[in-house]
Specification:
The complex is a heterodimer. Chain A is mainly alpha-helical. Helix content of chain A is 79%, strand content 0%. Classes of the chains: A mainly alpha, B mainly alpha. At the A-B interface, helix 1, helix 2 and helix 3 of A face helix 1, helix 2, helix 3, helix 5 and helix 6 of B.
C-alpha cells in the first residue's frame, strides 16, 4: 500500500464521519460544521490525487470547493438565524413543516 | 511518520467535532481539524492551498460560526445538544460498511499514469487558474456575490 492510498483512505474516513455528524447531530449549527468536515475530506482526495498525477487541476477544484464552502456558510448560518428568530427553536427534529 | 501524526490528529479532532456535546467545543475541534488538514496539504506539496485553508477556514469561517453562536441565547442552544442516540447507532454500521466497500475499491484499484512533475506549486497553480480555468474563476466571484446578497436578505429584520 503506497502512501497516497493511505491519504485517500483517510479522506474517505473523514467524509464518512462528517456524514455521520449530519445524520446524528441535534443542533443545526453543528450540522453545518459536519458539512464543512465533509467538504474538507473531498479536498484531501483531490490534493492527494494531484500529488500522484503531478498536476494542479485538483487543487484548483479545491479552490472552488473553498468558495462554495464560504458561500454555504454565509447562506446557511443566515437561514439558521432566520429560523431561530421567526420560530424560536433550532433543533433539527422540530423543523417538519414540509412533512405535515 | 509525519502522515501518521497528522492523520491521528485529524481523526481525533474530527470525531470530537462530531460527537462532543457543546457546540462551542465542537467548533474548537473543527478548528483543530482544519489545522491538521493544512498540515496534510503541506506534506502533499500544496503550499498555496494550505495557506488558503488557514486563511479561509481557520480565520473567516470559524470566527463566523462563533459570532453566530454568540447571538443565540444560550439556554435555547442547551435544549438541543449532543446527538440522537438511535440515529447514531443506525448510522455507524452503515458508515462502516460504506468505508469497507470504498476502501476495498481504493486498495484494489490502480492509479492513472503520472503526466508531469510540478516544481513550483504556487506559480503552476496561478498559471493554470488564469489560463485554463479563467471562466470558472469569474463564475466563482459571481457565486460569492450572490451568496452575499442572499445572506443580507436572509439576515435583515422584518418590518
Amino acid at each position: 500500500m503506497t502512501l497516497e492510498k493511505a491519504y485517500i483512505l483517510l479522506s474517505i474516513l473523514v467524509f464518512l464521519i462528517g456524514l455521520l455528524g449530519v445524520i446524528a447531530r441535534k443542533n443545526l449549527i453543528t450540522m453545518l460544521v459536519s458539512t464543512e468536515i465533509m467538504l474538507n475530506g473531498v479536498n484531501l482526495t483531490l490534493v492527494a490525487v494531484d500529488k500522484v498525477l503531478g498536476r494542479v487541476d485538483g487543487q484548483i477544484f479545491s479552490f472552488f470547493t473553498l468558495t462554495v464552502a464560504a458561500a454555504e456558510v454565509a447562506v446557511g448560518l443566515g437561514l439558521v438565524v432566520a429560523i431561530f428568530r421567526l420560530k424560536g427553536y433550532e433543533g433539527s427534529s422540530e423543523i417538519v413543516h414540509l412533512r405535515d | 511518520m509525519i502522515f501518521g501524526v497528522l492523520a491521528f490528529w485529524l481523526l481525533v479532532s474530527v470525531l470530537g467535532a462530531v460527537l462532543v456535546k457543546n457546540p462551542v467545543h465542537s467548533i474548537l475541534f473543527f478548528l483543530s481539524s482544519v489545522l491538521a488538514m493544512a498540515g496534510l496539504f503541506l506534506s502533499l506539496g500544496a503550499e498555496l492551498l494550505a495557506g488558503l485553508q488557514i486563511i479561509i477556514y481557520a480565520v473567516a469561517i470559524v470566527v463566523f460560526y462563533v459570532l453566530v453562536i454568540t447571538t443565540i441565547p444560550w439556554e435555547k442552544v442547551k435544549r438541543f445538544e449532543g446527538v440522537y442516540k438511535k440515529e447514531l447507532l443506525f448510522g455507524i454500521p452503515v458508515v462502516f460498511v460504506v468505508f469497507l466497500l470504498m476502501g476495498y475499491m481504493v486498495l484494489r484499484g490502480s492509479f492513472a499514469q503520472p503526466v508531469g512533475v510540478v516544481e513550483d506549486n504556487v506559480r503552476e497553480v496561478g498559471r493554470t487558474l488564469f489560463t485554463s480555468y479563467l471562466f470558472p474563476f469569474e463564475v466563482a466571484s459571481v457565486i460569492l456575490l450572490v451568496a452575499m446578497i442572499g445572506a443580507i436578505l436572509l439576515g435583515r429584520k422584518e418590518e
